[in-house]
Amino acid sequence: MIFLSSASQSGPCKEQQSLPIRLSHTRVVGALTGFRQVARPYSLRYGAGKALDSSGSVSDALRNLIMHHADTRTFLKYYLSRRIDKDLPGIIRGLDPRMMPAACRMSRTIDPNRPQELTTAQSSSVNQLPEIQDLIRRRDDLG
């Protein structure tokens, strides 16, 4: 059993039934959606639990009902990710929580073939810029 099917009888849902999902169907779904890992029924259930938990609009009690858990300990032990994906220092300091995900995405767009060091000619030309010359003079005056 992974997900539930509800039967309605002229009003609120009265009955829930398990939908059997075969492993072969799950693998096909995983291949079609481009999952990197082999999709297993547990993977789908784990992802659904994580989505329910992080939605903010589903209470713990409702999540437990949907997942058929007797209490929250089951979710905490088997489904709650051990990877903390929140900006804890930012939260403690009262910073904008959207900054951490944005910073984490920045590295995805870096071109691995970009030049990473200046050539000798490029370095020399930078050192001849008036702003750099001024900074060099100020540094030398301090020492």
Topology:
Blueprint: E1 4-8, E2 13-18, H1 23-33, H2 41-55, H3 60-67, H4 72-78, H5 88-93, H6 99-106, H7 120-127, H8 130-142
Antiparallel strand pairs: 1-2
Considering the chains and any ligands shown, give keywords for the structure.
two-stranded antiparallel sheet, 143 residues, single chain, disordered N terminus, 2 strands, 8 helices, mainly alpha
Question: Care to describe what's here?
Answer:
Pfam families: DUF3435. This protein is mainly alpha-helical. It has a domain at 4-78. The protein contains 8 helices and 2 strands, in the order ββαααααααα. It has helices spanning 23-33, 41-55, 60-67, 72-78, 88-93, 99-106, 120-127, 130-142, and strands at 4-8, 13-18. The protein starts with a strand and ends with a helix. 1% of the residues are buried. Mean pLDDT is 76; it is low at 1-6.
